[in-house]
Amino acid sequence: MNLIIGGSFQYGASSSHIEKIENTHFPQEWHIISHLIHRSDNIENRNVNPFLMSRFPLYEWVVEDHIDLSPSLERPDFYREDGPYPIYISTDEASTFLEKTGYRMPWDVEWEYVAKDFQNHLFISGEKIPDPALLNNICLTQFGDARLNKEAANHFGIASLTVATFTKIEPPRNEVIIRGGAAGFYPFQQYSQFATLLTELQLPLSNMPEKLAGLRLCLDIPSA
Questions:
Q1: What one-character-per-residue DSSP string does 135-154 give?
Q2: What are the CA-CA distances from residue 181 to residues 13, 43, 46, 76, 186 (Å)?
Q3: SS (H, E, C) 1-62
Q4: Which residues are 213's β-sheet partners?
Q5: Residue 59, domain CATH
Q6: Which residue, 29, 80, 113, 214, has fewest beta-carbon neighbours within 10 Å?
Q7: What is the span of the domain harbouring residue 6?
Q8: What's the pLDDT score for residue 79?
Q9: Contact criterion met (CB below 8 Å) for 52 and 219
Q10: Whether the model pTM is above 0.90
Q11: Looking at the 3D structure of the chain, how many domains does it have?
Q12: Using one digit for the tens of pLDDT, what is the confidence trace for 65-121?
């Protein structure tokens, strides 16, 4: 688990980010992704308290050590990698795992704070669509090589935010959604898939096959 130092940041897309997404990066795809962009609605910066987040997405073997997985669900195949590798699970499986282990899923505001990496980044990788070498690093889905793990991590030390993960939106919505997802499409076959690298893209569960996603483990830091 990595300590995420708290701070204040722009939660959601500002008007300048919306303009860049629509006119600079995805003018042809805007009609497809516009309703998925989380807008700030001119709300002041949000404050995030310090918390702990797992450096990597939840591994398959860790889940299997704690719960029984449904054999009827068709999960993305990460077996081509050397491992350990992430696993996509259902919300029911996630709830069971979290209840048994005492961890929690990240709040959506926490995930975006980490993804923006101190710099209010437009993309998980920075301000621009990444070149092939950087894209290969950040879409890592096997975590047995220390060098590759380091190259895949951001300034918080969190690796592979491109792996789709559940996040929870605070009340009153109190809704579970999905962030990330680029790793599941990599290597990209069409330009629109680069949009999955946006730090302000929120996906409903219905956008994912079988409503599956990965899980990023978090813990609160007790008050002194």
A1: HHHHT------HHHHHHHB-
A2: 18, 26, 24, 11, 9
A3: CEEECCEEECCCECHHHHHHHHHHHCCCCHHHHHHHECECCCCCCEEECCEEECCCCCEHHH
A4: 89
A5: 3.90.1580
A6: 80
A7: 2-220
A8: 73
A9: yes
A10: yes
A11: 1
A12: 999 999 999 998 887 667 899 999 999 999 999 999 999 999 999 999 999 999 999
